[in-house]
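Recall the central idea of this unit: under ordinary conditions, the amino acid sequence of a chain determines the structure it adopts. In this exercise we apply that idea directly, starting from the sequence alone.
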Amino acid sequence: MTTDAVATGPDGHDARAAATRDGPTGDEPTLLGVTALPRTAVGAPAGDGPLAGPRRPMWARLGTGARRHWLFAILLAVGAALRVLVMYAYRPAFEFSGDSYAYLTLAHLSRPDPMRPAGYPLLLRLLGDVGLLGGTGHLVLVPAVQHVAGLAIAVALYALLVRRRAHPVVAALATAPVLLDAYQLDIEHFVMAETLFLALLVAALVALLWSPRPSVLACGLAGGLLAGAGLVRTLGVVLGVLALAYVLVRRMGWLRLAAFSVVLAAPLAAYAGWFHSYHGSYTLTGGDSAWLYGRVAPIADCSRLDLTTEQLGLCSPHSPAARPGPNYYVWADTSPRFQLTGSEQHKNAVMADFAHQVILRQPADYARMVAADVGHYFLPGRSTGYRDWPVGSWQFPTADPPYYWHTSVPLLDLDGGHPARVINEPAAGWLRAYQRFAYTPGPLLAVLVVLALVATGLGLPRPRLSGRGLRRPWALDGPPAVVATASYAEPGPGPRRATRPALEGLAALGLSEPFIADPATTARTQGDGGPARRGDGPSLPSRRAERRAARKHRRANQDPVVAERRRLSADCALLVALGVTVLVVPSATVCFDYRYLLPVLVLFPPAAALAIRQFVLSRRPDPPPPRRLG
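Accordingly, the structure predicted from this sequence is:
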């Protein structure tokens, strides 16, 4: 356990100061089940704190850090060595003939593309403007930057998990997929947007999950990073909405919510306005209708649809069993969608209506197709069907890969040149052999999701039965005597009168007596005397002020372990929701492609690491409910 872990409790308060003031409780759980006591210098009183003694030598601190973080250091070194091997075996980079060519071309344009957002082309343009990609042969710097970003993602995740008191071994294992997965190494070598999207997503999560109550600046930073992710891949917009829901559930305050929302929405709105100025619609891309049409065309039963004459031309000429995959209907020259005439807005409207009819009138077929593709990601091995995008596109290639993988076309440099493709054997053969075994199995990902979901349930508020019905164990956080005084009037011959719940917080602060005894307060609480009028007595706090005082009191006096467990529950739920969304949205709108599995490597393993921390804290029983006096 580090000094910081001892110094800071689960709720972010100074545990050493509390231990010095109140004395050790002896029941504070740690990861090893040992009570954490404040570290003091030899011969110094406990009240002097850990800074009273001399600091340890640097070599001693380095040795302690090496012993604590040895596994992550090994994994990081292996991940770096593998990336160097990829850079040597395949030069200068991998390119996908669809996306990579488009990104490199868009880096020189000054208008938004109708199919792809401008986030990743902007990165390529920035690299070119600073002179890093000034000529032919400098394309190698693109995968070099992305490999460094992959290592930085692992470091950020490890730092976050250790900060959240996950065991260093557990935290290191959670970063192993992004460091060692061969498909992750392969995608980082492509001139494609996936690595930048992952880096922005992880940076936003670190900003949002680092502190128990992130600052306004951190919330704004998280919103801005997720907006950037949305401008790299439009999926980031959906993830930003989920993160906004997380901020709401955590009740971080209106100022933090406003900072997150405004900084998230402003860049997206500005880009949508720029897109409208060229293409006539307020959106981030204009190809959604074509993608959705391609997704539903393989299952469309035109006899069950109410189609116009023009839309009948979109029906597939193939029999249902022989229909090709979604990419045929989007890109092939013989696709029915290329028979449409008119403006692009008209074509998109026709395809969108066709797709929506298929979804609404064939909901079972559509849901079955989406569920099958999502479940496919959790199967053992790496296998694809004839309607899926071939997995070979994301495997280390030989000198002559199949053409339909779209990875064998001549390379395109940023300046329009065509650098030579170099494959160094036997290093490339070693990587191909490594990829046959070194990937994150689908069943393991399923187990990680289950762990995170169980941990989410463990941290939820659990009602308890008491003498007066259901009561949550943390609903009343003050001392029993104070809570009893605030919640019930003095005993007498008449029935007891419950005061407003907000007065519980004032009672704990010693401010409740004048309001409990005041007739206006009693009348306003019971509802039998009408609202208190100004000038009839001492001024009373508003209901909002009382609720604010009660919230502050509960936050200050809540059991730290309960607070941490509830926070872990929300964090696990967020990571699982993001990961499931990453799989469901492409399965519902595009096609099955193992490329879309890679973002969950930075979501499901950290969620499982936080789940283990939740299981450790759950060994401590909940505090007993407060007893009622009298």
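The two ends are 45 Å apart (CA to CA).
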